[in-house]
Design brief:
The protein has about 575 residues and is α/β, with parallel strands linked by helices. Among the domains are: about 150 residues, 3-Layer(aba) Sandwich (Rossmann fold), CATH 3.40.50; about 190 residues, Rossmann fold (3-Layer(aba) Sandwich). It contains 25 helices and twelve strands. Strand 8, helix 15 and strand 9 form a beta-alpha-beta unit. Helix 11 packs across helix 12. The radius of gyration is 31 Å and the shape is elongated. About 15% of the residues have low confidence.
Length: about 575
């Protein structure tokens, strides 16, 4: 028995010795093949520009997730998550909004209009530009009439500009409300009266005032003519009033802009439908004023990496205006004077905590590059809407032929949004930023383009965590929080500091609150100080005060070295260009 067992063991031993070289050879071949695959196979690509530009149907939410630990292999991997991630703040509200409120009532030193307005003194104005540029003109016209103690004729809207909108004042704004609300401040009439019984209608003397004209400027230049001729019409009335005025005149500005100027019922009803449909889709939504039209990019003088095709297309647009000469197209981008690309806007929002489930309403004209340019933004935020996608053609038909009425719809939807994101510094962005400050400091995000541009250039060498942290740091002071901007800096329409009051009682309650909130308070105050300092350092779009208030504002030769979107610098020699870009 033992003999047979030993013989069988020797048999298996000789068979295994025969198979061992074969097994070793196969294993070696497999190892060599595996090594070759590691060398030749491309490394997994993160979510980058090329990936985002693939058709939307190829994307799924998982494509935005970080698949591995970025630091596990020692190489940064830039992968955009689908979720917004944790945030140390409520992304839908301003941290300190409860401690401030809009206040625009006149002081006791501001006499009633009946006490100061003599008969036969009439001021008429003709506005210029698109809807929002005209809105600033209307607001300033009321204040100008008050300075001159004149009756104001309902302003004439610009019907001949680039926008080619034949609407008059009463077709866009509620004229009766406008007159009645301001009845204690300025006497407003619908048309110039006749001279006495049966006489001829007053014929106004036409003139123009310099840009940023001060109170003294109006008294010295316009009042003498008004006293002599009794009726004056100020033409091309845009940016014609200084940003710095007395307290009561600034508060009057706010009463006009935030209370007296109401859109007509048809505009409000349609806009409310659009807002309701956004709310039906989601509790919160972001409104984005993208401002990435071909004309806008051509004017800005910026280069976005599109090669000869981009240079040729935008160069052809620039040749329409003799004053546009771009010598260094990369410089405006480096200095933060260009709109972000749609993809860059999307990356900024994701880094600030907004996930792929967030709904976005886009107010924009024709986007340069069309759907291909929008694809990265839509991949990051698939819930992507505009008035054309949430309303029927039949509903919008009454508005299609009127650019100002269409712009009014976007204005209201953006104003009602939980978060407003502006991608330029035009009049719509300025007015909405100021309005949202006045009505509770609703979050208004303005990209810190100067810092973000450098960050976008180096993002592929960073982890997503490092990128997102840098975005949040750079955006301090650009989020629409109270005290982000020092009083008196920039346009009053954007920073209506005189009309923002502090609720001192609420602040006292906060400061003496339970001890467990102490850290949050200190963090809030530190953020206010840091954001203000950063605004001064990084913001290229806050022109200081009214040093040139009595100047006519000719085109600055260094225009593109200041602010690519500072429309006040555009020459009146190019009125169409100015009107196109202002809103």
């Amino acid at each position: 028995m033992a003999f047979h067992f030993q013989r069988r063991r020797l048999h298996y031993y000789h068979r295994f010795r025969f198979l061992l070289p074969l097994i070793s050879a196969i294993s070696g071949a497999l190892l060599i093949l595996f090594a070759l695959l590691l060398v030749l196979a491309p490394s997994p690509s993160p979510l980058d520009v090329n990936h985002l530009h693939q058709p939307r149907h190829q994307h799924s939410s998982s494509s935005f997730n970080v698949g591995v630990d970025d630091d596990a292999i020692g190489v940064p991997v830039f992968r955009v998550p689908s979720r917004g991630g944790r945030s140390d703040r409520d992304i839908w509200t301003s941290r300190n909004s409860n401690f401030y409120y809009g206040c625009s009532n006149a002081t006791h030193k501001f006499p009633n209009v009946d006490e100061i307005t003599p008969p036969n003194r009439y001021l008429a104005i003709a506005t210029s530009g698109g809807l929002n540029q005209q809105r600033t003109g209307i607001t300033d016209a009321v204040v100008a009439a008050r300075i001159l103690n004149a009756s104001l004729v309902v302003p004439k809207l610009d019907q001949k500009s680039f926008w080619k909108d034949a609407s008059n004042f009463s077709e866009i704004f509620d004229v009766d409300w406008f007159i009645s609300f301001l009845s204690k401040d300025v006497k407003i009439i619908k048309q110039l009266p006749r001279r006495g019984k049966g006489g001829k209608t007053w014929t106004p003397s036409t003139m123009r005032v310099p840009r940023k004209c001060s109170e003294r400027c109006y008294q010295n230049r316009v009042l003498p003519v008004l006293l002599k001729r009794h009726a004056v019409q100020l033409n091309k009335f845009d940016y014609r009033l200084a940003s710095k005025l007395s307290t009561d005149l600034q508060k009057l500005r706010c009463r006009v802009n935030y209370h007296a100027l109401k859109f007509t019922d048809p505009i409000q009803k349609m806009a409310k439908k659009l807002v309701h449909r956004m709310r039906m889709r989601s509790k919160h939504y972001i409104a984005l004023h993208l401002r990435y039209e071909p004309d806008m990019l051509a004017f800005s003088g910026c280069y976005y990496g599109g090669g000869d095709k981009e240079r040729k297309e935008l160069g052809a647009i620039r040749r329409r205006w003799k004053t546009l000469h771009i010598s260094n197209p990369d410089k405006p981008r480096r200095h933060g004077r260009c709109p972000l690309t749609p993809e860059e806007v999307g990356l900024m929002l994701r880094a600030l905590g907004y996930g792929s489930d967030v709904h976005i309403y886009v107010a924009s004209g024709e986007v340069y590059g069309g759907e291909e340019t929008l694809a990265p933004l839509k991949a990051l935020f698939p819930n992507f809407y505009s008035k054309d996608t949430i309303a029927t053609k039949e509903e919008l038909e009454p508005f299609y032929s009127f650019s100002s009425r269409m712009a009014a719809l976007d204005f209201i939807v953006c104003d009602e949004s939980d978060v407003f994101v502006t991608n330029n510094n035009g009049n719509m962005a300025k007015i909405l930023a100021g309005r949202r400050r006045y009505f509770g400091h609703k979050p208004t995000i303005r990209p810190n383009a100067k810092k973000l541009y450098r960050l976008f250039l180096s993002k592929e060498n960073m982890t997503w965590g490092a990128f997102a942290s840098s975005v949040r740091t750079y955006q301090r002071g650009f989020m629409g929080e109270p005290n982000e901007v020092r009083p008196g800096r920039g346009s009053f329409h954007e920073n209506p500091h005189t009309c923002i009051c502090e609720d001192s009682q609420a602040k006292v309650k906060r400061d003496v609150g339970p001890r467990k909130y102490g850290k949050g308070i200190n963090e809030t105050r530190r953020d206010e100080v840091e954001s203000d300092a950063q605004n001064v350092e990084d913001d290229p779009e806050w022109p200081d005060t009214d040093e040139d208030e009595d100047q006519s504002g000719p085109l600055d030769n260094d225009m593109f070295n200041r602010t690519g979107v500072d429309y006040d610098a555009v020459s009146s020699e190019e009125p169409e260009l100015e009107e196109l870009l202002s809103d």
